[in-house]
Description:
Elements lengths: L4 E5 L3 H17 L5 E5 L3 H4 L5 H8 L9 H8 L5 E5 L11 E6 L7 E5 L13 E3 L3 H10 L4 E3 L5 H10 L5 E5 H6 L14 E3 L2 E9 L13 E6 L3 H8 L4 H17 L7 E8 L2 E8 L8 E7 L2 H10 L3
Parallel strand pairs: 1-2, 1-3, 6-7, 6-8
Antiparallel strand pairs: 3-11, 4-11, 5-8, 5-10, 9-10, 12-13, 13-14
Amino acid sequence: MTSPVHIGTRGSELALVQADATEAALAERHPGIALERRIIKTTGDRRTDVSLAEVAKAEGIFDKGVFIKELEQALDDGSIDIAVHSLKDMPTVLEDRFQLAAVLERAPVRDILLTRGGVGFDELPQGARVGTSSVRRARQALFLRPDLEILDIRGNVPTRLRKLADEETYDAVLLAEAGLVRLGFLPAAPPVDGAPEPIAGMETLHALRLPEDVFLPAGGQGAIGLEIRTGDERALGFARSINHEATWQRITAEREFLRLLDAGCHTPVGVFSSIENETLHMTARVFPEGDGGPLVAEVSGTDPVATALSLYQNLS
C-alpha cells in the first residue's frame, strides 16, 4: 500500500480552507491518493497579545517566520511532506533545505477597507482609527490619508471582523480580499459599480475593494504556496502536478523583487503584477524608513526574474 502524503497546515479557519483546496486539487489530479492532514500551531498563532513585529523580535524569528517556523520543523523531522502556506507569510529566501515547490491558482489580490458605514478612504472621519497588523497597509493608508490613526489588530479573519462590529476601538479595518472570499464573507466577483458591499452574516459591516493600482497588495498576496523538503522528489512531483503556471510566473517576479530589496514582512512594500498577452506587467510602491514619500516604478517584460530586476532598477 502506498504511504500517505502528509499535509501540514495552521489551524485557523482560513488556513484550513487553503488546506482543503490543496487536498482537493491533489485528489482530482491523483485519484485514490492517500492524504493525511496534520494541524500545527505556529508562533504567530500562539502570540496574539502583541504585534507581529514584536513577536518576531521576541522569538528571534526574522522575515516572515512567525507563521511558518513550526511547519518547517515538521518538514525537517518528516512528520509532514507538504506545508501549505499563505504565500505572503513565507520568507523571501528560504533556507537551503526547504523549497517552494508550487502555487495554486491565485485568488483576488486586492486589499479591503471594512467599515460599519460602507465608506471609502475619502469619507472616513478626520483622525479615524484604522486597524491593521501590516506595516505595508499602515504606510499606504497614511500615504492616502495622513490624518488617520493606525492601530494594531491581531486575530484571524472572523475575530477581526467581530472586533470591528462589536467594539468602538476601530472605525475601519484593512484585510485581504482573498481571505474574505475564501471564507465566504464576500462573493468572488466584485459589484459592477465598485460600491461597498455587505459582509455575509455580519450585515452591519461593509467592504470596499480597493483598486490594486491605488492600494498595492503585498508580494504573493492571494496565493497559496506549497513548501517541501529540498530533494524530496515524491513531494515535489505531487506539488508540481497541481501548480498553476500563470500564478507561478507572477509570484516568481514578485518574490524576486522583494529579494532584491531585501524586504521581509516588516518592510512596507506594495507590488502588483498581471499577465496580458503573455506580457508581465509590474508596479511597485516602496516606503523608505522614516516619513519620506514612496519610491515607485512600473515596468513590463516577458521573463519574471528579468522584469523584477527592471522594476528594482527603475524605482525612483
